[in-house]
Amino acid sequence: MSVELNLVIDSKEVQMKLKHLYKFKKELDAQHIFFGFSGPLSQELFVEIGHTLRNRMKLEETNSAKVLKVFSLFVEQVQNVIHYSADRLSTTQPDSVELSHGVIVIGCENEKYYVMCGNLINSNLVDDLQNRLITLKNMDKEELKRYYKEQRKRETNENSNSKGAGLGFIELARKTTQPIEFEFQPVDEHLAFFSLRTFI
């Protein structure tokens, strides 16, 4: 009897999970999100996702210039997750493989494509990163262009821990058609979740 009862409970839990999955799918559709990924990212997976994204947009008959721009935003943001996520796994073997965890979402809102990414970062980086992003957000396109050239001339970073807020974020600010949107959500005393959204 106990085994039968457990089977019934397990069956109900499975059904609830399946219903939640469909509800999640409808929520994505309602927000016009056509691609979403959450989990470990690697260079190999990044390449495959890139191919899928470009093919998906071509099937929608999106013009090639816009496909290239969206793909460019996607590349910059995935690289940010791969290189700077505080949530990563690696092996100690000679041919060590490292996987960085993060979230990538691509959708369409008011006829504009957007790319969102999110990943854990160390809390002690939040203030510096936030100040850099606010600075970029307040610059116009000409100011960003000059700032980018200035930063490229620097051969080394003053603080290697802040390199994720360097040229990659300046590139994003230059390419996006709206100011970069970002948020930092505290997770615990050591970590925060960093979210970023760009538009084309």
How does this structure look, described?
The chain has 200 residues and is an alpha+beta fold. It has a single domain, classed as Heat Shock Protein 90 (2-Layer Sandwich), CATH 3.30.565.10. It contains 6 helices and 6 strands. The protein has helices at 2-30, 43-59, 64-84, 126-137, 141-153, 167-175, and strands at residues 33-41, 88-90, 98-109, 112-122, 181-186, 191-199. Strands 1, 2, 3, 4, 5 and 6 form a 6-stranded antiparallel β-sheet that branches. The chain is globular and about 60 Å long. Residues 160-165 have low confidence and may be disordered.
Task: Output the keywords.
200 residues; alpha+beta; Heat Shock Protein 90; six-stranded antiparallel beta sheet; 6 helices
CATH class: Alpha Beta
By CATH, the superfamily comes out as Histidine kinase-like ATPase, C-terminal domain
By DSSP (H or I, 4+ residues per run), the number of helices equals 6
N- to C-terminal separation?
59 Å
Please compute the radius of gyration using only Cα atoms.
Answer: 20 Å
Tell me which CATH architecture applies here. Answer: 2-Layer Sandwich
Low-confidence stretches: 160-165
Strand residues, percent: 25-35%
Secondary structural class: alpha+beta
